[in-house]
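Reviewers asked in the last cycle whether our approach scales beyond single polypeptides. To address this, we selected a multi-component target totalling 705 residues and predicted its structure end to end. The input consisted of the following lines:
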Amino acid sequence: MTPDHAIEVDALSRRFGAFTAVDAVSFDVGRGEIFGYLGANGAGKSTTIRMLCGLLAPTSGDAVVAGARVSTSPEAVKRNIGYMSQRFSLYPELKVRENLEFFGGAYGLFGRHLNTRIAETLDRVGLHGHAEDRTSSLPGGMRQRVALAGAILHEPGIVFLDEPTAGVDPVARRRFWSLIRELASAGTTIFVTTHYMDEAEYCARVGLMVAGRLPALDTPEGLKATYVPGDLFVLRGPGAHADDARARLLAVPGVVDVATMGAGLRARCAADAHVRGDALAAALPAEVEVEPDTASLEDVFLAVVDAEAQARGAARAFGEGD
Amino acid sequence: MSETLQRLVGQLRAVVVKEIRQTTQDRRMIFLLTVAPFLQLLLFGFAIDLDVDQVPTAVVDLDHTPESRETIAGMLADGTLAHVATPPSVPDAERLLEDGTVAVVLVLPEGYGRDLARGVPTQAQVLVDGTDPTRANVAGGAASGYLGLEGLRLAQAQIAARLPEGRTLPSVVVRPRLFYNPTQSTPIYMVPGIAGMLLLIITTIVVSMGLAREREMGTLEAVRVTPLPTPVLMVGKIAPFVVVGLFDVTLAITAGAWIFDVPIRGSLLLFYGITALYLLTTVGVGLFVSTVSQTQQQAFLGGFIFVLPAMLLSGTMTPIHAMPAWMQPLTALNPLRFYMEAVRAILLKGATFTEVRVQAAALLVYGLAIMALATSRFRKRVS
Ligand SMILES: Nc1ncnc2c1ncn2[C@@H]1O[C@H](COP(=O)(O)OP(=O)(O)OP(=O)(O)O)[C@@H](O)[C@H]1O
Ligand SMILES: [Mg+2]
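The resulting structure, written as structure tokens, was:
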């Protein structure tokens, strides 16, 4: 364990019966880093988090979290982390303060120190003045912030957030993420899973999980450069509406993929193909407006899923793998 | 206080306070824990009458002699059987038995008096509705008991007639005297059992649903990721309900003493000690059920699967010796049985610890075993 790694994961695996939910995943997370974990439903994100939090024993492999091994000392791990589970995890019938008193007490805080921490944390998550509100009466966004408060009350060095913004409106999401960034800049390591690609852009590094494996891990820019290396163009106008527009564009040398986007089309080109915008416009029967576009993490996600599917297909063709 | 201890106490307090806050938020729960047991006690106390008397009886006297009338009067004398109908024939009487108008039919055949006078063996018939076995036993016993005595009396009279002047037959008279419950009052006998059943229902079911609810809501995961030790969590979750249980049992014996004149002859300290041992088991079963249930509904059902047979096989309602032979050993697995035996002994007989040590030991063993099982199952589910 190097001093600048908050989390070190080594070939971590978890099976449920014959099914492998997490398959030999390895990575490190630096101190104060915001580490994003992306993946489809059932990819194994929550299972990974639950192992890292000491809630679920790994079947094989191991991880060191905040200096403690999850396989041998899950209790030590628990003392040094905060965790916000994917499911709503507050007592709805209790007041905000009562919920925080319980979780603070469970983490071993008591007396005046606990009261001070509750006041500070409520301030920090922007819930000053809501201490006496019944939790069930709060809107979803505020409840998520109460849950976050419960997870950081004891000032953990690492916070695990499992889809913290699921089902929350965009304004509340933005607010939540500015809290996460504040926490990280104060030195807290953040491990966060999400389905929202725009949120993944906020992360220093992103791991992409596909069917229990972690085939891609890099900064958002690095991922884009690796998985969506060529130029991208958006085409709008009458020419893009032609029935055979897709086929015509795919016929242009260097174009590898064409997808509809809004009212127009989006063409992805191979790396080093140096396809020009005019060439695409010329291929269409009517006038179009062509604009260069930038890669998104969604492109990366689709490319990685594609590559994984191909790799598995190839493995099967050779009679190996699963 | 050492820092570790201080932290543990703080953690325990956090759980207890949370449980109390949650429970007091819920009006139905407060009713279930305090008012309902009291009402149940009254209901059970007044409604269940295990004493058998005034069993409706039909008399078919086909003989119409002084002997037959005397026999009938004798059979009805002790009040167990109440003469309510006089059908003209046996088939008529059977119809009354069938439709439930009467539960017992006494039939004295023609020639009964004549045969008795001649010293020829004779028969009187007693038909008993067997749907209620306790009643059937008692009613049948009352009728045949009288006839048995009557036969003995006649025999003695005949022998005595042949004895030389001045000598009498030796005789033994059995006069049963009931101890501890001389008036044979049902509530006195029932209240200890009812108290045990109330505790069983409240603690087992409420505790089993408590943990299942946290699992269902998703809060259990949030609790388990905190460094709260499992035993602290468990103790904190059950302690409030043990206190409620002790409160309810206090209510039960107080109401029992005032309303039903249940005596409190033994030591209260011993009574509460036994109750605490018993609660260890009922709460332990609740915890165990909650570790094998995913939802509150399953927990509720699971709780009942334990509670119902425990109540039926405790000896509260049906005496254990009246159960089928194969079933009797099963009652040795039943904590309610031992609790009830001990409480009856302490309250009604003033038993000391030595006299209930077997029951106390059984409760302790069951309590520790089920607690250990529940805790280990809870831990195992984590990984
Ligand atoms: N306790 C369990 N027993 C059996 N299978 C499980 C268990 N927990 C998870 N799984 C399976 O493991 C796989 C991964 O689940 P996981 O919850 O980690 O996915 P996820 O990436 O978090 O998905 P989501 O985005 O839906 O939250 C799923 O197929 C799930 O059904
Ligand atoms: Mg998940």
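The mean pLDDT of chain A is 90. We regard this as preliminary and will revisit it once experimental data from Aim 1 are available.
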